[in-house]
Amino acid sequence: LFLATLTYDTLRFEYEDFPETKEPVWILGRKYSVFTEKEEILLDVTSRLWFTYRKNFPAIGGTGPTSDTGWGCMLRCGQMIFAQALVCRHLGRDWRWIKGKRQMDNYFNVLNAFIDKKDSYYSIHQIAQMGVGEGKSIGQWYGPNTVAQVLKKLATFDTWSSLAVHIAMDNTVVMEEIRRLCQSNMPCAGAAACPALESDVLYNGCPEDVGLRERLTLWKPLVLLIPLRLGLTEINEAYIETLKHCFMMPQSLGVIGGKPNSAHYFIGYVGEELIYLDPHTTQPAVEPSESGCLPDESFHCQHPPCRMSIAELDPSIAVGFFCNTEADFNDWCQQIKKLSLVRGALPMFELVERQPSHFSNPDVLNLTPDSSDADRLERFFDSEDEDFEILSL
Questions:
Q1: Catalytic residue (choose from 278, 314, 328, 375)
Q2: Catalytic: 194?
Q3: What is the pLDDT of residue 368?
Q4: Catalytic residue of the set 73, 182, 188, 246
Q5: Which of 18, 104, 164, 206 is least enclosed by beta carbons within 10 angstroms?
Q6: Can 73 be counted among the known catalytic residues?
Q7: 3-class SS of residue 29
Q8: Where are the domains of the chain?
Q9: Dihedral sign computed on CA atoms, order 368, 372, 375, 377
């Protein structure tokens, strides 16, 4: 026990504290001052769900790896950006985790969706096995685009969160596609209780807490992931200002990327440095206790977060945004349009009303580079089983 405490305390000193700077600190759409709000900054960072390498979990696929050390860092970053979307969806951006404080059930529901076992919606088991369909064998390193594609597929099984997940390919966000996706008349969680849509029936027959307002507006909360390549081998400086602005938007879910073959989850910036959560720590897998409660301290990073120079960022990233309502999405579109007017900021992607006619069908050809041309070809020839019905001749 003493040793464990010792290593934890020595860990605390390895991490440099926040720099004393007049520059504002931005964390996922929130602005802080180091001088007056240091505790708030650290509490915000600690409240994010932190997923790291784990060991001794049940074998993936029954006979596969029991640890993801060395290969799972991008999968863990995918879990972190998606967990942030679920936190915003079920707990709200203002929710905070306080050590030792009894958390609400929804918090444990979110956390349980990521636990290292085969039946959690977004477990390492599910991500690794779903990745096989994207041409990745279990234990193989993912790029940001692959993990985004896999999470999108897994989200369809998560009826509790009822998310619309859109991955914008070819550096283009098509507003019409997103509206079509979010306004699809898919029933939200609890909708079975209200078969009819006449407002009087709804108000009389449904308790308030089944997401009544959501179903009346018929907008599914949106997770928007945009895989990008911001340069050939290093990030083009012209994109840095735009990238910073992404962390300033209230819809920000942060960025997944990192240094070559070493993935990080970026949650903000200060000055010319990015602030990130690092998955490269191996912790023992966590088992729920007999009471069904989950020991959750190891899922929160309780030391100051890591920082790195923006210039060191690998150019292959995916940027994430969460729009809980249609108004959030409209606001996001306005901010992106304004951003294109900022001097010295090169747009990282294009926002268009409808699909340009020269585009191929987006389901057939995804040409955002992930790591290599071979990867792109693999995805091009990867048939999407759910989109085709095989007819017997």
A1: 278
A2: no
A3: 47
A4: 73
A5: 104
A6: yes
A7: coil
A8: 26-184+218-356
A9: positive
